[in-house]
Amino acid sequence: MRHSTMALLLGGLLLMAVSAQAQKAPSEKVAGPSFKAMDADKSGHLTLEEVMSYAKKKSSDTEPFRITDADLDGDGVLTPEEQRKAGINGMEQFGAVNLKEMDINGDGYISREDLDEYYRRKHREAFAKADADKNKALRPSEFALFRF
């Protein structure tokens, strides 16, 4: 009887610990843009212009920053964790970011111009990959492939 009571108690404690850990773990999955939100003219397909308009809006959500202030380990890659610690918002959909690719003029500072160009490139690349039939418009089924 004592052993079964002890087993129940330990099982309950283990279950509480696992539940508490699951609640602490942040979700790394970030919801991307919705087809409906990007389809500005409500035509049922996305043009490159609509995607680029969305890219401009997303770029404006991110504030310029100095690389040394954000790249905490100095490896040239800005991880989602480093983005959070530096208070950088708006880049979640890109995951880890190569800072040399982002710093267009190489000055060690990610300026508004750098951000705009980076977002344009990433959205243009994602559009080209998703446009399976190469008709310069994304159907909802192709939009499922629209990832960065």
What is the string of SSEs from the N terminus onward? HHEHEHEHEHEHEH
Structural class: mainly alpha
The end-to-end distance, rounded to whole angstroms, is 58 Å
Mind summarizing the main beta sheet?
2 strands, antiparallel
Number of strands: 6
Radius of gyration: 22 Å
- Percent of sequence in beta strands: 5-15%
Helix proportion range: 40-55%
- How would you write the strand order of the largest sheet? 1-6
- Uncertain segments are 4-30
What overall geometry do the principal axes of the alpha carbons give? Answer: elongated
Number of helices: 8
- What oligomeric state do the depicted chains represent? single chain
Global mean pLDDT: 82
Describe this structure in words.
By secondary structure, the chain is mainly α. It contains 8 helices and 6 strands. The protein has helices at residues 2-24, 35-38, 48-60, 67-70, 80-86, 99-102, 112-130, 140-143, and strands at residues 46-47, 65-66, 77-78, 97-98, 109-110, 137-138. It has a two-stranded antiparallel sheet. α3 runs antiparallel to α7. The longest helix has 23 residues, at 2-24.
Features:
two-stranded antiparallel ribbon, 148 residues, mainly alpha, 8 helices
Spell out the blueprint of helices and strands:
Blueprint: H1 2-24, H2 35-38, E1 46-47, H3 48-60, E2 65-66, H4 67-70, E3 77-78, H5 80-86, E4 97-98, H6 99-102, E5 109-110, H7 112-130, E6 137-138, H8 140-143
Antiparallel strand pairs: 1-6, 2-5, 3-4
